[in-house]
């Protein structure tokens, strides 16, 4: 976040609250605050995914100046990126949800999770949400910033962090 020009203060930008329904967290663009729903987060790995998911939204808000409230495609893109990069669609999570497949399953999961996230925050039809996701899917699915890769597990997350640390060294030699 700091490299993108957005300072983060954990006391100011994170809030733990009780939430209605089964929502685990959210990003409040008006205050640039991540809300963690303490009553709906089941364990540490769930919290890690929620924090990562919401940090992707915060990163997008900073980097891309997302117009959350009037441009559904902006929201759809950030939801695709958050589902793709946060671990929402890990094999373990999908087996736990009793959803699994072999061909293009990660992409299908990302698409489905993005649609569900949009429907959770917008009063629109499923068809409208699907259309928005379809319009942005390819470019947003392939945007792995700030990680540079999809961190499927802790090993890939360490690789992504190493790549990030070495990024300036690489670009300095070009």
What does this structure look like?
With 174 residues, the chain is mainly alpha-helical. The protein has one domain (8-146). Helices cover 56% and strands 7% of the residues. It contains seven helices and three strands; from the N terminus they run H-E-E-E-H-H-H-H-H-H. It has a three-stranded mixed β-sheet. A hairpin with a 4-residue loop joins strand 2 and strand 3 (33-37). Helix 2 (44-64) crosses helix 3, helix 3 (72-85) packs across helix 5 and helix 5 crosses helix 6 (126-141). The relative contact order is 0.10. The model has no long low-confidence stretch (mean pLDDT 84). It is an enzyme of class 3 (hydrolase). InterPro entries: Peptidase_M76_ATP23. Its EC number is 3.4.24.-.
Distance from N terminus to C terminus (CA atoms, Å) equals 24 Å
- On the 0 to 100 scale, the average pLDDT is 84
The portion of residues forming beta strands comes to 5-15%
Strand order of the largest sheet: 1-3-2
Query: What structural class results from the helix and strand content?
Result: mainly alpha
Q: Report the biggest beta sheet as strand number plus sense, adding barrel if it closes.
A: 3 strands, mixed
The geometry reads as globular
Helical amount = 55-70%
| Count of domains | 1
Give the tally of β-strands.
Answer: 3
Total helical elements: 7
Organism: Ursus maritimus
Family: Belongs to the peptidase M76 family.
Pfam families: Peptidase_M76 (PF09768)
Keywords: Hydrolase, Metal-binding, Metalloprotease, Protease
């Amino acid at each position: 976040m700091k490299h993108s020009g957005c300072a983060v203060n954990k006391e100011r930008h994170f809030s733990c609250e009780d939430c209605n329904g089964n929502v685990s967290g959210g990003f409040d663009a008006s205050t640039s605050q991540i809300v963690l729903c303490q009553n709906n987060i089941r364990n540490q790995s769930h919290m890690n995914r929620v924090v990562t998911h919401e940090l992707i939204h915060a990163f997008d808000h900073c980097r891309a100046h997302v117009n959350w409230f009037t441009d559904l495609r902006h929201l759809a893109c950030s939801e695709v990126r958050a589902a793709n990069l946060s671990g929402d669609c890990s094999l373990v999570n999908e087996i736990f949800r009793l959803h699994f497949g072999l061909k293009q399953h990660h992409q299908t999961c990302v698409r489905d999770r993005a649609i569900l996230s949009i429907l959770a925050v917008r009063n629109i039809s499923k068809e409208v949400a699907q259309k928005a996701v379809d319009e942005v899917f390819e470019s947003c699915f392939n945007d792995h910033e700030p990680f540079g890769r999809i961190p499927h597990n802790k090993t890939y997350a360490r690789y992504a962090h190493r790549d990030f640390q070495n990024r300036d060294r690489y670009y300095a030699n070009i």
